[in-house]
C-alpha cells in the first residue's frame, strides 16, 4: 500500500513539474540497487522538499494543505481535544470553520475513518482533515500544548 501511494505521489510530482522525467529516471536507477524508494531518493538528494511532497499528496487526495510553520492555531479549536490524545495521535486541531473542526493530520492518516470518528465524537462536531507535514504537526503540538492537558497562553 505504501509503495502504491509513493508511486502516486511521485507521478503527481512529475505531472506538476516539481520532478523532471530525467530526475525520475536517475532516482529509479538509484532505487534499483538501493533499499530506499524512489520517493525517498528524491527527498534524500534534495530533488524535492518534504513540504512539496506533502502539498502534492494533499492535492492528489483532494484535501487542503497547511504549512504549520506560519499558521496560528485557533485556541478555541485546540481546547476541543484532549492534549494526551492530540500528542498520542499526532493530530492538531487548527480552527473551527462553518461549524466543523479542521484538524491537521499527516498524509498517511488522511483516510483513517476511525480516527476521524473518534475526533468528531470527542469534539462533539463534524471534523474535516487538512494535510500537514508530520514533523511540523508534532512541533506545533509542543508549542500549543505546554504540558499534558494544558494549553499554552
Map the helices and strands:
Layout: H1 2-15, H2 21-32, H3 38-44, H4 50-60, H5 75-78, H6 83-89, E1 92-97, E2 100-105, H7 113-123, E3 127-131, H8 134-144, E4 145-147, E5 150-151
Parallel strand pairs: 2-3
Antiparallel strand pairs: 1-2, 4-5
Commentary on this structure:
The mean pLDDT is 91. This protein folds into two domains: 2-48, no CATH class; 68-148, Type II secretion system, protein E, N-terminal domain (GMP Synthetase, Chain A, domain 3), CATH 3.30.300.160. The longest helix is centred in the N-terminal third of the chain and has 14 residues, at 2-15. The strands form two sheets. A three-stranded mixed β-sheet has the order 1-2-3. The protein has a two-stranded antiparallel ribbon with strand order 4-5. α1 packs across α4 and α2 packs across α3 (38-44). The protein has helices spanning 2-15, 21-32, 38-44, 50-60, 75-78, 83-89, 113-123, 134-144, and strands at 92-97, 100-105, 127-131, 145-147, 150-151. The protein is an alpha+beta fold and 153 residues long.
Give the CATH topology of the largest domain: GMP Synthetase, Chain A, domain 3
Low confidence ranges = none
Distance between the termini: 41 Å
Number of domains: 2
List the quaternary state of the chains.
single chain
Percent range for β-strand residues: 5-15%
Text of the CATH class of the largest domain: Alpha Beta
Rg, Å, rounded: 17 Å
CATH architecture group name of the largest domain:
2-Layer Sandwich
pLDDT averaged over residues: 91
Structural class: alpha+beta
Question: What is the number of E strands?
Answer: 5
Strand order of the largest sheet: 1-2-3
CATH H-tier superfamily of the largest domain: Type II secretion system, protein E, N-terminal domain
The general outline is elongated
